[in-house]
Specification:
homodimer; 413 residues; alpha/beta; Molybdenum Cofactor Biosythetic Enzyme, Chain A; Molybdopterin biosynthesis moea protein, domain 2; Molybdopterin biosynthesis moeA protein, domain 3; 4 domains; 6-stranded mixed beta sheet; 7 helices
Chain lengths: 413, 413
């Protein structure tokens, strides 16, 4: 009749995030900046573009020279020359004049707009017929229109996407200040667990959690580091935990799921220097027996052994702690999108507990249907079938068939 | 008055995908299989689990011994021993008997269910009081319940997520057959483009597209390979294209956006051995001047030079070709989720053309709002502001404020 612990509500677990440190910074070549977290604000040191550019192929003109022009009443302009790409034009364009220009070309002095190729016709080498008027700045990107000089264009804590890489390229940033990727130490325990190289004997199963967590850590933008498997013995497990702790920014112990393994994990955490158990049990399902400690100021997790539980707890609980350690600023990044769907069946849920239900998404004529992939949390096939999770909060007793739900898709490319 | 080309509707572009080859296979260690594409079907060579396991900490029993048990009328069972984790139990449990068992433990012969710890009490070393009945197979994962032997559990063409890695671990697959990552050659052109190391002079801009495309190719699960910048000259560009083609599975020429660059690209493609222009212009916005050719049986792209155009065309047009080359089977993978939102304003769109509008998502009390990040497609800041795209199909003339829209989120972690 032991195993009574005080479970913590999910929101209270997240309140612990701020108590943990953020990793340091480093600089990386721009080629490697994609998907990293920016560690410093970026201020533009130049106007982009540095000159007025044409957005079309056509003729640079003074807009006023084209006012009133039409098919029946064209404007006639004098052709002054052609703008060479990448060069300052060697001629100017004033009222009644025009110059050939390509997309991206620099507007000649005097001109303020570009007539599109298809709205004009060269009737001889020196004369252009224009059939349509163009407003001032028409078909032009003004100097500094994209990014003005001395503007904070990116903020620390932003995850760098391809477009942020593009902006950094535009500013000539060959090296980018980013946060280091947190190193997450992985230890597996449990006397019933064998390496995947072995054929499991009676009562044994292969070490699945190390592999699923390794992959989830990669997807979370961190570096997984394997410290191997420990039998359920205090001394070897304690040694492994100490080694992992000194070489990682966070440690996850996982694998065994018995109360014996859990008690041992708690005992080992207590024996670590500067350690404190913060959470012992979370009011979520699956994943209730999750442990969070602080050891040497780092987060130290004991994850449930059931494979689906460990995956769900990683995604819904551990990942935000990794994002924090990695320097990610939630206000600077869009949250993972939710997908609206309808529930395929009634779903019971206990009040006072946050439930995460694995669902498969199905496209139907009435829209997306979320079909619960029900099954024990020790089964991996429920995770294989599922496209994501729905969250049933602690104040909801259950959901009815056809209820609108928000599906949290599993991470991916 | 040249530059009149016959634009191809978007759906007709995708019909070309099947005409291109898929890369070959390789095997990788399971550690590196996450996010790769499986190249062969996987058949289970064993039952998982290989034995009936307990899903809770408690007592293995014959369910019938507990029928009718309650707080006021407990069942009394004889304790036979404790199941050691990872071992075959050295005792059996028949009617009227019980054995201590931990989560993940192997059920002793004779037992068919497990009473949870909190529903029982050991009144002495040999006697267990049970307060609640358990049904047959209650709190048990049956032998082979997760994955039965000789079942095709994963199919070629599936992108491997953490849960697929877990399944492969459960089956002991130390090495996994996957498709190679396609190598995508990148060439940039345009006389106005300078390397990012240079400070652009008048009329010049830095080479942004190489960097945005490099990052987008990474996110698409392929390997970007840079072949550098070529001025708008036939011979050096042709040489670069030949080199890129021989060393890549697909080539993208990008950078310059003028009609001159485009004409040159077409001329160079025509000069490549075994080449054929398949598409010259797509009825999409942005991105109309996109070129697709087949050269040496590989896809060869000319992307528009405007940075936002190139990014949108990559995401909406090129990426499905990369997924095909990479061996991805669309029927085996969930498509990228769409996010339901309401449009913040009226939006015009030309009929006969598919429009991709960059939008920022805003959470409001009435739900998600999609706010168009309007601006010229030569501006990168419209991409920086945006969280995704909405697609307005060729048969729609425009959308009204508050219309429900599906937002295609930009890819990410």
């Amino acid at each position: 009749m032991k195993d009574f612990f005080t479970v913590t509500p999910l929101h209270a677990v997240f309140e612990k995030i701020g108590g943990f440190p953020v990793v340091g910074g480093e600089t990386v070549p721009l080629w490697e900046a994609n998907n990293r977290i920016l560690a410093e604000d970026i201020v533009s040191d130049m106007d982009i573009p540095g000159f007025a550019r044409s957005t079309v192929d056509g003729y640079a003109v003074c807009a006023s020279s084209t006012f009133g022009a039409s098919e029946t009443n064209p404007a006639y302009l004098t052709l002054k020359g052609a703008v060479a790409m990448g060069k300052t034009p060697d001629f100017s364009v004033f009222a009644g004049e025009a110059g050939r220009i390509s997309t991206g070309g620099m507007l000649p002095p005097g001109s303020d707009s570009v007539v599109m190729l298809e709205h004009a016709n060269e009737i001889d080498d020196a004369t252009l017929e224009v059939y349509k008027s163009v407003p001032p700045m028409g078909n032009v990107i003004a100097e500094a229109e994209d990014i003005p000089k001395n503007q904070t264009v990116l903020f620390a804590g932003t995850r760098i996407r391809p477009q942020e890489v593009g902006l950094l390229a535009a500013l000539g940033k060959e090296r980018v200040p980013v946060f280091k990727k947190p190193v997450i130490g992985l230890i597996s325990t449990g006397d019933e667990i064998v390496d995947i190289q072995s054929r499991p004997g009676p009562g044994q199963i292969r070490d699945i959690n190390t592999y699923t967590l390794y992959s989830q850590i990669q997807n979370a933008g961190a570096i997984p580091k394997i410290f191997g498997r420990a039998a359920d013995d205090r001394e070897p497990l304690l040694e492994k935990c100490k080694t992992a702790l000194s070489a990682s920014d966070m440690v996850i112990v996982s694998g065994g799921s018995s109360v014996g393994t859990r008690d041992l994990t708690l005992e080992v955490i207590a024996a670590l220097p500067n350690s404190e158990i913060l959470i012992h049990g979370i009011s979520i399902s699956p994943g209730k027996p999750t442990i969070l400690a602080r050891a040497d100021s780092k987060p130290f997790w004991g994850l449930p052994g059931h494979v689906a539980s460990a995956m769900v707890v990683f995604d819904r609980v551990v990942r935000p702690f990794i994002a924090h350690a990695a320097g990610m600023d939630p206000s600077r990044n869009p949250r993972r999108p939710r997908i609206s769907a309808r529930l395929s069946r009634n779903l019971a849920s206990a009040q006072g507990r946050t439930d995460f239900v694995r669902v498969k998404l199905e496209e139907t004529e009435e829209g997306l249907l979320a079909r619960p992939a029900l099954g024990k949390s020790g089964l991996i096939h429920t995770m294989l079938k599922a496209d994501g999770l729905i969250e049933i909060d602690a104040n909801t007793e259950g959901l009815e068939k056809d209820a609108p739900v928000s599906v949290i898709p599993f991470q991916g490319i």
